[in-house]
Amino acid sequence: MGSIVKEAVVKAGKKVTRYRAHVRRAGFKSQSKCFDTLADAKAWLRNAEADAAQKRDEAGGVYSFLRVIELFVKTPPRRGTKAWSPTHLAYWAEHFGQRDIKSITRADINVALASLQSKKVERRTLLGEVKFTDKTVAGATVNRYLASLSSLFNYALDSGLIDRHPIKGGQVRKLTENTGRRRILTIEEEDALIAEAERSTWPPMALFLRLALTTGARKSELRNLRWSDIDLNRRVAVLPKTKNGEQRTIPLVMSVRDALTQAKKVRPLNSDLVFFDPKKPERPKPIDSVWKHVRSRAGLEADREDSLDRVVLHSTRHTAATKLVAGGANVIQAASITGHKTVSMLKRYSHLKTDDVVALADRLLEKRK
Length: 369
What we know:
Elements: E1 2-11, E2 14-23, E3 31-35, H1 38-59, H2 65-74, H3 86-96, H4 106-117, E4 120-124, E5 130-136, H5 139-158, H6 187-198, H7 205-215, H8 219-223, E6 230-231, E7 236-239, E8 248-251, H9 254-264, H10 288-297, H11 315-326, H12 331-338, H13 343-349, H14 354-364
Antiparallel strand pairs: 1-2, 2-3, 4-5, 6-7, 7-8
Helix pairs in contact: 3-5, 6-7, 6-10, 7-11, 11-12
């Protein structure tokens, strides 16, 4: 039980009112604390009672879903618990919260998955505002959320907090994923895009595209690239935090290194960003409108019927990965450049053309005397 007692005390020669909060739970040590305001006392009391209730439940072998998340994120990753995201766990926490983790069934998870599938995709502006698009979450994204939940249950099972895993054994099925965007740029299309970028009202767009095509870096990684991340002598740039949460080093080909050398000469004194917004140099440049104009001028705006087969900025990443593999790099070498966390993810981007496949078969598979 919790209670608050009003007390009159003398402080600096004056009589003042203070509030003492008490928490008493059978089997646990009593707690109390004084506060200057009633609101502070009530807030502490709520937290203390929740902590006491949690300890009581845990003593009886009952762990809430939220409590298991707290333990999980503090535990070093092990086999089966590495694939998770804070955003994903936050979603599941909204659904299961203080529920006993042992009580969560496949039906509960499937209901939450159905809700996730109808969720609108969010986009965050440069000012940090969240806006919702007309698109719903893709099947691949839903499967990533499910992977995070499975990692959490793997941890709980290994730790003895649950007796069964409600996802494994096909109890909760993954969604079918599409093959993703398939467009690979030809040399002629690359040249057309670079040529139009060089005529752009924002001159750094050509350098941005060259970097994208020669590193396979994501748009967000390049927009946040800083001069302090670049070593022009060694011809490398270090991306301190990428989409998969890991640091990555990207190579700078000679032409890109030379272009960066020239760009560094005219960098503003009040910004370390390579691709800064001229109006607000402390912020990255919003490039969507510039990119769309370049793509349109290059004749690549909605040039194919299938939307997944059209040119988008991410096509530069697909193109770079495919060039690496077609040129003889194995998937491990290619992944070290493009930053794909798993080989399976990289394989989705590595679309060898028919001619490349035939040439590869001739070179490696045909027996010659």
